[in-house]
């Protein structure tokens, strides 16, 4: 008896290998998968502006990066002595104005360079709910704990999301037509919006993604969809796959989704190297009982030899 439904998956053609350059943008699930790319030392850039949940804010950053439109003083504000920007996550905030602008523009240049050279761009969209800053009438990526009265909450329509997605895909295709774009919907439920409201939000994202992908498939866009949301909701529906908040996938769930992603998107030829890198990574985390023992020095020498062999073949890999 089979006690679990399973999402049918098949390997894609444009595989990720150790020559690939991967950009990950979107919700916190981007960072879950990005952490796996980091661990196995794939070349990747993760959320240079922090976690961004909604497609309009992701569109704004993509457009700004491609247009090379630097952040200026009009794009930032001070709140409780800290400089912030409505287009980015609070993790970039700074006490120094000049330092903050420099940080934003460095991240912008980094994103621009990666968008031009990426082989794979992975978007994880989290929610259709957005907050509009009333004074400027602009959708923000983060409210930065400003008073609620400063914002109006609204649900993006399927049409509005489709329009943002089309802009994102068209702009990337114009500068990097060979890049494969992998879209997914975050399996993290935004229950603070409400249970029904969360379902509606995810439905809008899914409808817009599939509609836009279908419409643009005739325009030579390399658009793909990976069902991380569906895997979590159907295959991993048991609460043993959730963290303590009962909303986020736990370590086991992330590992399962990563394995499924790997089967679809990561070249099988990389498996031996991934195992070797994992061995090195675990070795680097090892804490000896006696750091001065001959056994430990022998262990370090063997580990260094393994590291050197990997770096000789792939100079971009750093431990």
From TrEMBL:
The GSCFA domain extends over 21-261
Please, which domain of life does this record's source organism belong to? Bacteria
Give the protein's recorded name.
GSCFA domain-containing protein
